[in-house]
Structures are given as C-alpha cells and as structure tokens.
Amino acid sequence: MVRKLMKAVSGPPILRPLAYLPVETRRETRFHTYGLAGVVQHRHCLCAYEHDRPLIETIDKAAVEMCDTSDEYVRVYRGQVMHPIVGLTIKGSTEEVSIDEEVSFEVSVGGGEEVEYSLDFGDGTDPTEWSADLTSKHKYFVPGLYMVAVLARQPQHLNRRVMSEVTYVRVTAELVNENIHFKCPKVVEPGDPALCNLTVNAGQQMEMTVDFGDGSPALPIPLPDVPVRALGVNVPQYKNSKVTYGTALKAEELLIIPLDEKSLDSSAAIQALEGYGAAPGNMQVFILRKVCPEGAECSGHGITCFEPSALCVLNKGCSDSCHPFPPQKTSYSIVKTFTLTITEGHFYLKSSSSFRMTAGDVLAIRSDGAQLAYRPVKSGETPDYITEHSGDGPISSDNFREVKEVKHFIRAIVSEPLALTVPHEYVDSGHYGIKLSVKNRWTPKDITRESSINIQSTISKMRLTVNPPDASVDQRVDITIQLNKGSNIKVLWDFGDGTVVTDQIPDIKSSQRFMKSYKYSQPGVYDIRVKAENLQGETSTHHQLIAEHPVHKNWKIVSNSPQLLPGYVDINFTYPIDKILPTNASTIIDFGDGKREVWPVPDTEWEGLHVVQHEYEKPGKYNREVWPVPDTEWEGLHVVQHEYEKPGKYNVKVNMSNIVSKQIRRFQVDVLRRITGLKTVAKYLNPDRGYVGGIGQNADYFPIDRQINFTFATKTGDIEYYVIEMNGQPLKNSTDNVTSFITHEPGFYNFTFYGYNAIQKSNASTIIDFGDGKREVWPVPDTEWEGLHVVQHEYEKPGKYNVKVNMSNIVSKQIRRFQVDVLRRITGLKTVAKYLNPDRGYVGGIGQNADYFPIDRQINFTFATKTGDIEYYVIEMNGQPLKNSTDNVTSFMTHEPGFYNFTFYGYNAIQKKSKSYSLPIYLLEPIEGLEVYDVSNDTVEPEIKRFVVEFNKMGTNSCLIVDYGQNKAEIEAFGDSRSCRLTFPDVKYTLMGNLTNPLEISKQYEKPKDYRLKFSVANQISSAARDYEKPKDYRLKFSVANQISSAARDVSVTVIEIDCKPPLLSIRNRVTNWRKGIEFWKSKPIQLFSKTIVDCNATTVVTRVWDAYRLEEENGTVAERVDLSELDSYRKSFLYVPPFFLPDGYYKFQYSINMTSPEPHPLLPFYASAYTFVKVVRSPIAAQLAEGAQSRVIRGWGQRIRFAPGEYSRDPDDENNKNFEIKWFCRRVPDEYINANLPDERQNFSEPLYDRTGIDEEWDDSDGGGCFGGGPGISRAPDLVFSG
C-alpha cells in the first residue's frame, strides 16, 4: 500500500510525504495545510488536499487492527483545514500615475482562508476598512513616491500575526504652462550681473536651459522639485463609516476652517481645493488674512495664545492649557474668493489663479446650497468655527463660535513655488532676446518663455556748446554735445522753434562729441534743449539763443553839414525798403560835442530814412547820441536833429548794433555861425580932416580921386571874406573888414556887399504846396550840395493831391506841378483763428499758444489792421497760394492732420503786399472712443493681467498713460516722447514705445490685492480716461472729455475664477483709420486673414461671421450693409471676396466670434470682434504698346514695327473702354528714366535735338538720344508706325 501510494506521488499526488518528523508532531500539525493525512507504522506521514478525497476513497479499505501491522497499510485521518496566510502580494496597475489619475491595486495570497485586507495608500489618508475585496482604487493629488501597504488578517484567528506587504507608486506632475514665470530686468549695465527671476509653481524632476542671446552655450541645468503639500484634514475618496452628513449652513453664516500656521514657512500657491460633499450645490470659498491694527495685512509667522504664559517656545505653539485658534481679538479680511460647484462625494477642483497663501491664512466657506461632510474631531485637533458675516467688511475672531467635535472635509493643495535667480553677465551693450526652456520627462513638449534685456551704460552728464551763442537769421549755428559714457542712447535735439530731431547712438566713446547744424529763419528767442535718454535714465541741458536780423552795410547816413549857427544839423538814415531791417537794433549817435542820442531801429515798415538833428554850441570834440531803432512801422526814413552851440568841425560816430552784429560809421560835421546884420559904412579921405563920411542929406555923395574906405560890420557870423560887387559886377573880395576904392570917373555907382563863408551861400528858397492846405519852405543851398533833398509830408486822409513846387530867388523862379496818390499804409496786420465748436460756437485754438485745432472743423481767420486801405487779403499755406479774400473773415477746413503754416498779407495797388503775418497751427485728430478690454481673469501673481486698448480715433500725437494701481506708482507711457512730455508734464513715467490701435499691454502683479487701474490718453486738443478695478463685481465708469467733445460710459465687469477667457481676435495688416484703408483694385480679389486665440476649458459652441459695410466718402459713416452670405468664406476665419464683387468706395469689414455653451455657464456667452477698413479703387490701365506686348524689339534694316497703345491697351474694369489719354515718351536707356511721381516737365530727359546737321559721327558727337530723329522728350503722336 505504501509503495502504491509512493508511486502515486510521482503522478498526480494524492497523499504527499511530510518531513520525517515524530508522529506526535505530525499529528498536531496534520491539519495545518492539508485536509487529509495518513500515517504508516507510526513512522511515515502522508498528506493530501481536500479535493483529493474522491481518489482516496476509491482505495480498498481494511480493518483498523490491520493498519499498524505492515507498511502495506496506511491509517488515513480527515479533519478541518486550518490554512495560515501565505504568499501575500500587492501590485498596482501602473508604477507611475499622474495627479488626479486613478490607480488600481490588486491583492493576492498563496494560501489562507477567510482573509480580510486593509490598504494604506501612503498619502496620509485613512487606511481602507477591513474587507475581503482584493481590488482597491485610489487617486493621488500630491506628487511624490508613495509606499502602499496591504495588511491581511483572518478575523477567526485574531491571535495570529497580521501579514503585510508593500509596493511603490510614483505620482508625477506634468508641467503646466501657467506655472512657469520668467522675468528679466529691463536694463542692466555692461559687466553687471543680469539677474533674471524664474518662478515655478509646480513641477518635479525638471531641467531648464537658458539661451541668453549673446552666443554663450545654453547648458541644461537640473531644477529642484517644487514642494507640494495639503493644508487641512485628509479627505476620503469614498464614503466610509467616518463620513457624516450634517445640516447646511445658513445664508449669513461663514464656516471657518483653521489651518496649521506651522505648515507654511513662506507663501504658497493654491493648486487645487479637495473635499467631500454631503449635498450638491454652489459655495464660495474665501481666503481670510489677518489684518494688523493699522489696517495693513500682517506678515510673519507669529503665534498668538489667549494667555502669555501658555506660549511654548520650543514647538512654536501654545501649550495644551490654551487654544491656539482663534487668536484673541484678531481681525481678518477677505483676500481671495473661489466660487465652486460641487457634487455629493469626493471632489477635486483645480485652481487656475495660483493664488498665494501665507502662514496664518484661514479658509472660510459660505454655502449656496452645497454642504460639506465632516468627521469627529481627533484628539489635539483644532475644531472648526462658525461666525455671522455679510458684506465685504473685516471679520473679527471675537465672534467665532466653536463647532463642537466637528471637522469638515476640505483642504487646500498648495505648492511652495520655486524662486530662482538666473544670473548672466553681458559684456557688450545691446538688446538681447532671452529664451528659457523647462521640461521634465512627463511633459511632451518643452515649456518656453521669452524675455529681453537691454544692456546699456548709464549716460554721463552732458556738456552743451552752441556756436555762436546768439546768431543772425539764416546763420549756421553749430550745436555740440559732449558725452563721456552711455550706450543705446536716443538723443532728442529740440531747436526751440518746433523742430525736433532724434538720433540713435549705439555706443559712446570717451569724450565723444556730436554736432547738429541749424539755421533759424525767423528772429526770436529760442530755447535749445538736448536730451539724451536710455532705459538707465536721462540727462538734459539747454541754451537760450537769440536770433536776429543783423545790421547790414545797406545803411546810408547823410548829413546837411556844413550848417550854420544857430540851426540844426540833420543826420539822415536811409535803408533800402526792400531789405529786411535788423532786429532789436539801436543806433548810438555821438555828435562829438559831448552829447549823444539813441535811436531804436524799427524792425519793419520803415520808409528808409532817419534824420538826426543836433545843434552844436561851440567848436570842439563832442559826445554821442543814442538812437534806439524802432521795432515796427518805420517809414523808411529817420532824421536825427542836433543843435550845436559853437561853430567848428565835429567828428560824428554812429554805432548801430544788436546782439548779433554791429556797424560803425564816422563822418565830419562843419558848423559855422550864420552871417546876419551885415552893414557897410563908407568914408573918404579928407586931407584936412582924415576919413569922413559922405556929403549930403543921405551922406551918399563922394568926390572922385579920393580914396573911399568901406568898413564892414555884422551882428553875428563867421566870415571868410567879404564880396564887393559894383553895378552888379564883381569888384573884389576882401578878407579884411575894411577895403578901399578910388576912381577918376564921376557917376552913379551901386555897391553890393556880401559876407561869405563855406556854408552860407545863396538866398534861393523853395515853397512846396502839398495840395491839402499845407505848405513847406526849403532854403536852397548855394554850393556843395549832395544833390538830394527829401521833403516829407504826412497826409491825414487818402486821396489824390495836386502838389505845386515854387523854387525862386530875387532874380528867378521855377514852378513844377505833379499829382500824389495817397493810400493809408497797411500796418499792424494780425489774424485770429477760431474753430467751430458744436456746443460753444467759434472758440480759439487749444494749448499754451492756442495753435492746436481739430480736423474736420471749420476754422475762421479774422483779419485786423492797425492802419491801411486794403483791396483784398492774400492767404498762403505752406508757402503756396491758397486764396484771396475781400472780406475780413475767411474760412478753412481739412481732413488731414499735420502742421500748417499760414501767411497772410494785406494788398493795395500802391503798397502791393503788406508785411506778412504768419500763423503756424497744428491740425490734430481728436481722441474718440477709448475702450479698455480685460482679456484675463486674475490680477494676482503669478498671473499676468492683459488688457486691450482700442480707439475709434486714436488722435494725432496722442500719449497714453497707464497707472497700474500699485503703491510704487509704476506708470507707463505709450506714444511720442515729446507729446507725452507736453501733455503730461507732471507725471513721472517710463516710455514703453509707440501708441498703436489696438494696443495690447500686460502687467504681472507681485502681491494679491485689490488694484484700481487708470488709463489716460491725451493730445494737445483732447483727453480721455478709463478706470479699471479688480476683483469681484465692479461698476467701472469710463469718461472721455476734451475741449471739443465728451463721452461717458458705465461698464459692469464680473471677475470670477473659472478657467475660460474671452477670445482674442486680430486681423492681419489691420487699418483703423477709414481714410487710410488698404487699397484693393476692383479687378483683384479682397483677401482678409484673421487670427483667434481661445483659452477656455468649458464646452463651447463657436460661431464665426464676417460683416461688411459701405461708408460715406465724405465722413466715413455707414451708408449701407453689404450682404456677404453668398460667399463661401463669410463664416470662416479667411474671407475671400471675388473681383468685381464690390463697387468703388470705402468699406469696413468686421470679423466676429460668438462663444456659447450648451450648458449654463457663469461667463459665457463671449462675444468679440475686430475690424479693418478697405478702399476699393479702379484698376490701373494695362498699357501695351505693340501686339504681343514685347518689352524689347530688335529691328533689322527696313523692318517695320507698329506701336498702337490705344488698340492694344485695356481697362481691366471695362473691356469696352478705349477712351485713353496717351502720352509718348522717348528716352535713352539706361541713363534716362521715367519717375512716375514727377510731372512731365520734370522728367529726366536730355534736351530734344531737332537739328542733326551739326552732328559729326567721326568725332563721336552726341546725338542727344536720337529718338526718331528728334531727340528725347514727349511726342504727341497717337500711333507711331515707322521703319528702319
């Protein structure tokens, strides 16, 4: 029997041999594993499983007493099996699992009955309850390596050892684009470390590479893991015996969830909220933060206990005798709000905001139908609290009520962001693009960030030199600056007359100089300002320059010297009336007799003569007179009179000067006393009595042959000699006052005596009758006259006057008559400009100088003169004639912004054009329709806040100022630097670049807070403002106002934490000014391309559509809507409009997107649109000279070619149109070419050569182009047919 059984062992075993153990031992353990056992002669044991029983029962049975007598018999025992647990194993469905991804664990055993299992997943959650289930599922929400342990027991034998086995699972986190933030400083000095900041909110086993853009190698750098932890109680994923459902909160109640202050050493970013719902619905989760007594947020990690003695220093907490929460008299404010929709059971909701929590923050919950499950409070745990609160005010811990023995299932999954500084040193100045790439092995594509940095040297102090410091008009002025250091510098040269020139300097060498030459065309005081700036800062300096018309040598100075005393010496100043007078000049006349006079030389409207009179009293060297030259309305003649007290020769010095020039003239004035009271006494020589008087009643009889002495006497005068005439004939001259005469002939003698000097010579005079009842007498000089005498007469009224000039002396008379035509001279012409304001009527210009005006408004120019008869006014614009006006008011209007220089003249037939009056004005487009769109949901770090700024009209030279609402007042400006400086002189800002329409801007905030953003835009004629305040529900008031228009709008903005953002639209080559729309030929298709960026995790339905509108050509308003529905592409992102679909004109194309959700959504629907303007124009004529459209023809001798452009050319818009205007040009190539931007008469053609007979080809004479024998130029032939 034994042999049979042993033999059976080699096959399918029935009874298996046990070890050779004592039978007693074997009996005690026979039922440990096997259900059947056999003993052979008390020495050998054999065992079999229960399922082997049917085979054993087929063996023949023997009597009991036979069992121990031989090895042929086996005693078989059957009992109850007592299987221990053996072969316990656990295996996960995967070794790596992502966050929030379910993993299954399978448990198996090799042996054992009635086994129960409990799994500890290693993440801090409670182990599963004991059960016989061999499969368990679990999700992990914090990355890391977890040890999962299975415990196995047999409840019927609790005294036996509990078996355990472990396995491991790694929880991975794929890198998320929103969790990587990279920012570099705007500007750094060369050689200084450029410190770029990298913040990673979540990630493990990461590696980064940085390309700094300067050619340095980009090497991979491993990054440490970002710590992630859970704040709050562990949340079960399935309902168990500890999960309890309670009652819902009241509407005014807040559930306060304390968090362990020691869990955080620094701020942490919220990644998700996890909890267990008892009832579905909505709830609001608030983050509460302590508020210090001053109202600011409390910082640090302090612990507050009710009793000071209860503070335990070692564990940074409170002793058991006091409660660590809530702190006594602590106030909290709401710093963050999450709106959640939960279901019954476990929930895990990711956060897209990455809000930063700090130590001491508290969770608070307000229910809107939702209800949280809870469990009992464990020993040593802080319970939850309830308080009443409504509104947004502070929350005081004095009102907290403890929820007895309850701990709600909710916790925050947070990460402690990894903040690294990535240093790099740049040697050379420049603008460098920096590219960062971060990856780990679970992210399929690298996450990249791009930034830029400017390496610029700080600008040294600037030195400015202006040569000459003051200048004449049209004189070259050299403006030189010297800089010792700096790079990437923008230099603004403001010459003070409205001209600003910008230079870009890449790098400054030591003591490098830069010069600009400039000429000033008008006199004035100019403030020359030079500013050098880069991102490191700026430096500026200025110089005040005076520009004046100089004193030229065109002056003529004539005096009426010699002159007699008493009397005046006239010094006449004349100047050509067609020459420009000096500016602010004065003339100092030193008369040489100790006196002087100052004459201010006039700037304009002078007749060209100034007379200075001076009377000298006695001979000698005399002083000077200063003549301040008048500035305006000079008649062209100035007379300076001076009375000398004594006779003599006087040296006169005339010094005429202004700041920029000087002219000196010297001449001599001869002054003598006038001869008056000349008398002569005649006496003859009586031999007895000496010289006696004549005989007779009149003492006029004298004897012949006797010497007669004539004795002269004068009342006044300087006499060179006496002139004696007898009977009208010269007798002799005498330098003595006594002269003698004797004759032998009796008779009547008429003696005439004169006193003579070089000045006083004749007795002729001129009487001028001016025809207006007034006259003037001019004594005509006898000799040494310069040949010119000017008589000035001022008529009081205009008209035609008959002038009579009577020149006579005793012996003669001459009379002349002529007519004088008198008109009042036009002086003091001024013009005032006003524009039509719809609300206020005609008002003056805007700005400090009132020289800014809006376009599309009528501007009236009103003329006024001080004096003058005007036939009409002449108006010129930018140096070109505009129009004439007989009225003193004329109007002007334009649609084009720009600088316009208007020049006005008064005109009459005598004066012709008066002195001009210049009025430079700036016509600007006003700002209209400022809109600010928020295209992101969060303003807190590390989210980047993005805005889109749009205008209906951006305006000319506009500047946008953006105040992001931070305490450090980081204000940015967009626009022209000069415009920003003029419109916002009191604002300290950073100029970021040009202002575009639309303008996309972004800002990254460093600290969670409510921010109020202000957008201000202005130019010289208008301004607008927008405010934006965040978070929660806000009502924003947008106001736009300027002197010519105003607008206001209220906008409600709802900001909530749901990961769906409005779409961003753009159209390629977008044009926002309807007058500057992109031109498309009528015969060509219109193709418009759009781009849409959508960031939305919700289920949406997106509708796209193109709309078109025809605009009025006068004002750009919508005339009618164009139906595009027949086009296949009108509901696609690319619009194709076929040729000839639209007639000529202006069009507005608008692309719109409507995002809706099939399910209720707090944000949707979203609507966004973008527009552009298009101008459809007639297609150009397709010109064709010859059949086949040859561009080059080589003719042989005698071959013919026919040019017929009227026949072969075509109009693409109308094939039947042959009404062409044809001009023929012939030129020599390649030297001569046609410039389509120039008129015919200015084309680059040599002179036509009509006479070719003088050409000698042997001497290589030029034929001048030789086109058809007539040289190059324009031909009028409609068609040409010729043969060679």
From TrEMBL:
Q: Which Pfam families match?
A: PKD
Top-level lineage group: Eukaryota
Alphabetized InterPro entries for the sequence? Ig-like_fold, PKD/Chitinase_dom, PKD_dom, PKD_dom_sf
Name the Gene Ontology molecular function terms of this record: monoatomic cation channel activity
- Localization per Swiss-Prot or TrEMBL: Membrane
- Acetylation listed as a keyword: no
Ranges for the region named Disordered are: 1260-1284
> Membrane-spanning residues where?
none
Q: Could you identify this protein by its name?
A: PKD domain-containing protein
